[in-house]
Automatic annotation (TrEMBL):
Taxonomic lineage: Bacteria, Pseudomonadati, Pseudomonadota, Alphaproteobacteria, Rhodobacterales
UniProt name for this protein: TRAP transporter small permease protein
Sections of the chain in a coiled coil: none
UniProt entry tagged with the keyword Membrane: yes
UniProt subcellular location: Cell inner membrane
Annotated membrane topology: Multi-pass membrane protein
Gene Ontology annotations for the cellular component aspect, listed alphabetically: plasma membrane
Function as written in the Swiss-Prot or TrEMBL entry: Part of the tripartite ATP-independent periplasmic (TRAP) transport system.
Organism of origin: Shimia aestuarii
């Protein structure tokens, strides 16, 4: 069992490390978009797509960088008491709080799935089975949701990024849970 936990942690940490490192470069994409927005508004006709594309890039940067942040322990913590605790006590506390975080992320994942299904033209009550049907070719895509702005981009791509990001965060939280279990067993991680 310990070997399986170590293997899972190794694979998930490796995947989220690579995706997180790639997502870090999203800040440069965001800067480029905002720079172009400033230049086009000053010297040319203003671009309609820049503000919304900057929002999409920021969402991808934040959501895909979240698992990496959890992995590196760089997420925000209230350190009033936690910093003075022993490693064992921290592991117990983290074990409980990561379960609450996993529950919260499952709620967010279901919301992201429902929102994505809606953006693909599904108005029913079974968004998970609909998206599975779309993936396997048994369901058809309906009228695609578009943004109400002047640019009117399709919204499903960024919503798919949200699903992927939430899923990766859940995987990373389970890896953190396993790390805490291993710490409590006295294993070196």
């Amino acid at each position: 069992m310990i070997g399986l936990m170590r293997g899972y942690v190794g694979v998930v940490d490796a995947v989220n490390l690579r995706i997180g490192r790639l997502a870090m470069y999203g800040i440069f994409v965001l800067m480029g978009i905002l720079l172009w927005s400033s230049i086009s508004k000053t010297f040319f006709l203003p671009s309609l797509w820049t503000l919304e594309m900057a929002q999409f890039v920021m969402v991808a940067y934040y959501i895909l960088g979240g698992p990496y942040s959890i992995q590196m322990g760089s997420n925000v913590r209230m350190d009033l008491l936690y910093g003075d605790w022993s490693t064992r006590r921290k592991a117990w506390f983290d074990l409980v709080t990561v379960l609450l975080l996993i529950f919260y992320l499952f709620v967010l994942l279901f919301g992201a799935i429902s929102s994505t299904a809606y953006s693909l033209g599904y108005w029913g009550t079974e968004p998970v089975s609909y998206l599975a049907g779309v993936l396997f070719g048994t369901e058809e895509v309906g009228r695609l949701e578009r943004s109400p702005t002047a640019w009117r981009p399709y919204l499903w791509p960024i919503k798919v990024v949200m699903i992927v990001g939430m899923f990766l965060m859940i995987l990373q939280c389970v890896a953190e849970f396993f790390k805490d279990v291993l710490r409590l067993k006295g294993e070196d991680i």
